[in-house]
Amino acid sequence: MTSPREFHRSEGRGLFGIDPAGYDAARPRYPDALFDLLRTRCGLRAAVRTFEVGPGSGVATRRLAELGANPIVAIEPDAAFRPQLESIASETGAAIEVHLAAFEDAELPEASFDLGVAATSFHWIAAQAGLAKVASLLCSGGWWAMWWNVFGDPARADAFHDATVHIFDPLHPSPSGGGAAGGPYALDAAARLAELESVGRFEALEAARWDWTLTLDTRQVRALYATFSSIIRLDEREREKALDTVADVAESRFGGRVERNMVTAVYIARRR
Question: Is there a contact between 103 and 78 (Cβ–Cβ < 8 Å)?
Fold first, then answer.
C-alpha cells in the first residue's frame, strides 16, 4: 500500500460525503449521558438558538433537535450531506438552516447564539482561530461544547487494534489521531482546555469522558472503517483492499464479533 501525502485540515471539508447514507448508518451514536450534560450544564432546552460546526450526516443534529434545539444553524462544507440535514428538519420540526461553507469562511451574526457545538469535527479546525470565532458567535452566558467519539483507548488493551495496526501504520493519521502528547487529539484534555483558556473569553471550563464498548459484526466493521478518513482518501483499489483486509481479520480471527474500546470525550465552556 502506498503512503499518501500528509493530511491538511482542509481535507476534512470534502472527504466524508463519498457515501452519506453509509456514513450515517455506520457511525455510532453518542451516549445519552453526553446529552444529559448538555441539558443540565449547557442550557440545551426548547427553543435554544444553536449552531453546529461540521454536522456531517447529522448524527448529533438529530438528537439536538429532538431535545429542543431550535433554530439550528448547521455549518457544513460538504454539499453531499445537505439532503440528510434537511430531512432531519422535516422529521423533527426544527428549523435547520444549512450553511454550505467551511466554518472559517461562514458569515454568521455575532452574539446571536445560546449554544454552539461540534461533534467529532473540531479537530479539522485550527483551534485558536476557530475558538475565537465560536466566542464571537455566542451571546454572553452562551455555552460551547465540543466532543468526540474516539475509536480506541490507549489505556486499555485492544486486540482488534493490535491485529489491524499493520494496515494503518503506512497511512498518515488524520488530525484526530495525535495531539501534543502523542495520543488521540480528543483525549488530550490539558491541551484542549488550554486552548479554550487562551481565547480569554470563556469561563466555567470543564472536561468529561465516558468509557464504553462498541460491538460489531464483520459487515459493521467494514462499514465503519469505510468512514475513516485515512481509508477514504486512498484510491478506490487500495481502499477496497484495506477494507477487505479489515473484514477478513474480523471474520477469521475474531469470529465475526469485534469489540472496540470507545471513549466519548467532551469539553464545555461558557461565554463570559
Answer: no
Average pLDDT over residues 238-254: 98
**Start-to-end CA span in the chain (Å):** 50
Identity of the residue numbered 128? Q
Q: Look at the chain and report how many structural domains it folds into.
A: 1
**Cα–Cα dist 119/62, whole Å:** 12
Rounded to the nearest 5 degrees, what angle is found at the Cα of 50, between the Cα atoms of 45 and 53? 135
Answer yes or no: is 254 within a domain. no
For the chain, give the percent of residues with pLDDT over 90.
91
Antiparallel, parallel or unpaired: β 138-151 and 258-271: antiparallel
What average pLDDT does this structure show over 22-44? 98
How many of the other CB atoms lie within 10 Å of CB of 238?
15
For 46, residues 6+ apart whose C-beta sits below 8 A from its C-beta are 68, 70
pLDDT of residue 2: 52
Helix (H) or strand (E) holding 230: helix 229-232
| Contact by Cβ (8 Å): 271, 144 | yes
- Judged by phi (left if over 0) then psi (alpha if -120 to 50, else beta), residue 36 lies in alpha
Report the percent of the chain where pLDDT is more than 70. Answer: 96
Alpha-carbon distances, residue 55 vs 51, 128, 182, 218, 251 (angstroms): 10, 20, 26, 27, 32
Q: What is the CATH number of the domain that holds 91?
A: 3.40.50.150
Cell numbers found for residue 20: 452519506
As a whole number of angstroms, the distance between CA 70 and CA 226 comes to 32
Stated pTM of the model: 0.95
Rounded to whole angstroms, the maximal C-alpha distance in the chain is 55
Which domain, by its residues, includes 46? 9-155+177-213+262-271
pLDDT value at residue 9: 87
- Assigned C-alpha cell, 160: 482488534
Mean pLDDT of 176-192: 82
